[in-house]
Amino acid sequence: MNGNRVHGKQERGLRVLHVMNAFAGGAARSTFELARGLEDFGVESWFLGSEDSTNLSMVVARAGQVERVRSTKLYWWNSKIRSAWWKRPVHELLQAFTTCLGARGLWEIRRLHEEVGFDLIHTNTGVTPEGALAASSLSLPHIWHVREELGPGTLYPLGIWQKSAAKVFAQSAAVIANSSFSESAFQKCFPGVDTTRIPNGLQLSHFAEAFEGRPSWQERVKKGLRVSLVGHLSARMKGHDEFLVIADKMSGLFPKWKFQIFGSRAPTDPYAVEVVRSATGLVDLMGQATPEALFRESDVLLVLNPSESFGRVAVEAMAAGVMVVGADGGGIAEILNDRQSGFLVTPHDVEAYVECLASLPALGEKGQRILDNAKARAHESYALKRCAGAVHACYQKVLS
Fold this sequence. Notes:
single chain; seven-stranded parallel β-sheet; Rossmann fold; 44% helix; 15 strands; alpha/beta; 17 helices; 2 domains; globular
């Protein structure tokens, strides 16, 4: 099989099915952008994801073609540790019933393959097994793309599926990790399974206008900095509670500064309800916004989660001329060069964050140099073409 295989009477490009655990979130955006980057290498992409993950019209807009997006119920084999312990068996039974223990996804992939004729299947998550199982039954090469921190003690422990997952991962043609952080966690969980590290690639050209037209760092400091956190209000790992404490402490030191959270609300989630209550009069809740819109309204981005497997929002902020202050852990620690392209802070140390933020006005011209360094690093290290080229090379290797 190769990129010039004849289908009917006409040559066509390599055809790839991307299996996704959701159509929303940073991993989904990275997958859709990867597919766009792969177009330059003659790769045609189709997408299969969970039908209840987001509005399908938004997904079609991201993917570009309605006929290439399919949805179904997919089985998530990670333990449901973010639910109350007594709810987990109920969630598991409900999921097993609605997905027919993954059979629904397998049937949909087989049906789509009969219609399209794929050359390989690329699963863009470590928590849904259908892509790998379908590839095996169809005698197609399969690639895992691990975009999460998997394993015991993480947000994605595999629990009773650990041994089964090890066998399935080992049988795949290749395993890609999106950072050394996710790669390290994977290798601890599945020793002996080879991995290839390919950082996510981002389409950053559309941030150029926002960056070039911005006031200098010194001018923004004089006006009063706008400090932002990005994360759905129910996403506990994003650190909304820490952000609120930081904002409270900073308000007395810099009353002109504005603290704001970008992310959709969850009216029935207890954590989200408490965030809304505590934010009143202290932090502005801006709702969901496009990256371009939120970075136009931001001067500083706080990334408080030390377990981000990559840190897409940080790279986007760097490209848009926003100062990034992040937790010294996970993918963020790989993206930022401390005090060169941003600032790394001890995770969960509120006083350390306050001290770091309070030091920003005194940076002067160095602040602008840091922003310039950050922009250069974002474009050099995380360009979409670079990532897509590496993934395409992986495709060629497994197909040969």
